[in-house]
Write a structure and sequence with these properties.
9 helices, mainly alpha, single chain
Amino acid sequence: MSARGKWEDVRRRLEERYRRLVDARKIRPAAAVAARFLEIDGATLGALVSIQLFTTVIPLIIIGFDYFSGFAENVSPGTLFIRELGLVSPLTERVRAAFGDSSAFRSSWTFIGVAGFLVWGIPMSITIAGIFAKAWRREQFGLGQRLLRGATWFVLSLTILALREQIALGGDHTGAIRALLFVAALVPVWIFWSLTPVLLVRDGGRGLRYLALAGLAGVVIDGMILPVGAQLFFPPLLSEKLSKPVDRVF
């Protein structure tokens, strides 16, 4: 191919890329997000992450709560879910009875017991890294990098989860103070989701504006929609189960 032919080929590819960029900007943000969600098969990946979440993160949260409560016989890990879901009596007694006392989990606080759940966090972290790479249309890291970055993200997510719970629900506050603490608890959530592309996406640290928007999306979804949705969905669901015998969760 002559030099002129190569130049024409480059020009056509640049024009095509520019046309795609212009077309993408014409799409409304909501439509663009929906299209990208379908492109990466978001429903299937979301279901997979949800299963891994319930088999990994929630047991670690319960064991961590029991440890910091000193495995007391008069404390129930169900308190976490009562505060998170805003439950009131008689649902509170029902949930405490389902989870039992913290002392029952003392045998799980061993290196093997905790490490067993942490190991299950490895496939989840790799899955999360793959999802972000697809969503950002970037080449994925190698397996070693995905494992290291994903494990860092997983540990950081547990830390932020505990920090948010401590800020928002750690004290017995009402009214304006509670509302201010709820807003303050969103700050670490915003920082976490802003840093997530930096950890999981190749060259994801470019563009502070996009990182800030990623953090804002995390605040809206993880910090507001999910907690509010849980408080609307689960209390009526639990109320329907009140007439049935209580089964211990663990």
